[in-house]
Design brief:
InterPro entries: Epimerase_deHydtase (IPR001509), Lipid_A_modif_metabolic_enz (IPR050177), NAD(P)-bd_dom_sf (IPR036291). This is NAD-dependent epimerase. It comes from Phyllobacterium brassicacearum. By secondary structure, the protein is an alpha/beta fold. It has one domain: Rossmann fold (3-Layer(aba) Sandwich). It is 42% helix and 13% strand. The chain is built from 13 helices and 9 strands. The strands form 2 sheets. The chain has a 7-stranded parallel β-sheet with strand order 3-2-1-4-5-7-8, sandwiched between helices. The chain has a two-stranded parallel ribbon with strand order 6-9. The longest helix has 21 residues. The protein is globular.
């Protein structure tokens, strides 16, 4: 019984392979880039290679993808080839084989323009019931791949789940204004209030999804740190975020002051992970309040797994305007 992890030379892929191997599981890794956790070097868009990689596989974690940072450097066709055709190749091979769980790593970026409320509106409360409005080829192809997973569950009976993960990358923010206004750890901690998760929690959600998929059937879940906010905070979040944060996590102010850090003046959306916690039994550990306590104790914000994996980057070259170019 083998578990296949696609994208095994990448950030999440390596984390999944390491975590599964620590649990004594037999793991195969598929990635276009060779690496210590990749056993099958090749593309998910190569149907013959996918078939060979899937021999004897009973669980698939499909994390391979072209990401948002590739939008400015890769053609739209490449997104279709990797994110849609690659997913189709894996799903067809899985449905024809012995795969019991197929877990697809998607992104909260599929929500696109649905994440941005009008200037005079409260912050957006984002659950799985919000209709995505993708705004670039990345979001379009990830949403299409999600629909393929649902199709294969409905028509082929393949146990599939979609995990819409929020930010967990360790690289600097792509927005130059954000980089200039906030220390890197400051902005990342702020994001744990509404749109970030630690990779340790991301991995635990994937493992639970694979376990629960045959029982629950097709599901879409938002995988993000648990927010301290309620719907009653949405107006304040958009108009005066420090006031809302101070109401829910008052101890943050002293720690921020000690470090010379700043809270975001406005937060425009909040990702809600309640459905994943309720249905999967997922218990994410790394939220804003917990991280404030770690900082007060002089500890690193990052989980041991996040520190071990480090940064992978998205491109072989560097860019003068930031960690990657923005379209």
């Amino acid at each position: 019984m083998t578990i296949l992890v696609t994208g095994s030379s990448g950030h999440l892929g390596e984390a999944l392979v390491r975590s599964l191997q620590e649990r004594g599981r037999k793991v195969a890794g598929l990635d276009i880039i060779e690496g210590p956790f990749t056993t099958h070097a090749g593309s998910v868009a190569d149907r013959a290679h996918v078939r060979k990689s899937m021999e004897g596989v009973t669980t698939v974690f499909h994390a391979a993808t072209l990401h948002k940072p590739h939008v400015a450097t890769h053609a739209r066709q490449e997104f279709i080839d990797t994110n849609i055709t690659g997913t189709l190749n894996l799903l067809e091979t899985a449905a024809a084989g012995e795969v019991q769980s197929f877990i697809y790593t998607s992104t909260t970026s599929v929500f696109g323009d649905a994440l941005v409320p009008p200037d005079d509106a409260p912050a957006a409360w984002i659950t799985e019931d919000v209709t995505p409005v993708p705004k670039n080829i990345y979001g379009v192809t990830k949403a299409a791949a999600e629909d393929l997973c649902q199709l294969f569950h409905r028509n082929q009976g393949l146990a599939t789940m979609v995990l819409r993960t929020s930010r967990f990358f360790p690289e600097e923010d792509d927005n130059a204004n954000v980089r200039n206004q906030f220390a890197d750890q400051n902005i990342k901690l702020n994001e744990f209030l509404y749109r970030r998760a630690d990779i340790e929690d991301i991995v635990s959600a994937h493992l639970l999804a694979a376990e629960k998929a045959p029982e629950l059937g097709f599901r879409r879940y938002i995988i993000s740190a648990t927010t301290p906010f309620t719907r009653d905070d949405l107006r304040d979040l958009h108009e005066d975020a420090p006031r809302a944060v101070g109401r829910r996590v008052p101890e943050y102010a002293a720690e921020f002051a000690r470090r010379g850090w700043t809270m975001l003046p406005s937060i425009d959306r909040v990702y809600i992970n309640e459905r994943a916690r309720t249905e999967l039994g997922w218990e994410p550990k790394y939220d804003f309040s917990y991280l404030i306590e770690r900082l007060k104790a002089g500890e690193d914000m990052r989980s041991p797994l996040a520190r071990l994996i480090g940064s992978r980057g998205y491109h072989d070259e560097s860019f003068s305007e930031g960690p990657y170019p923005v379209e």
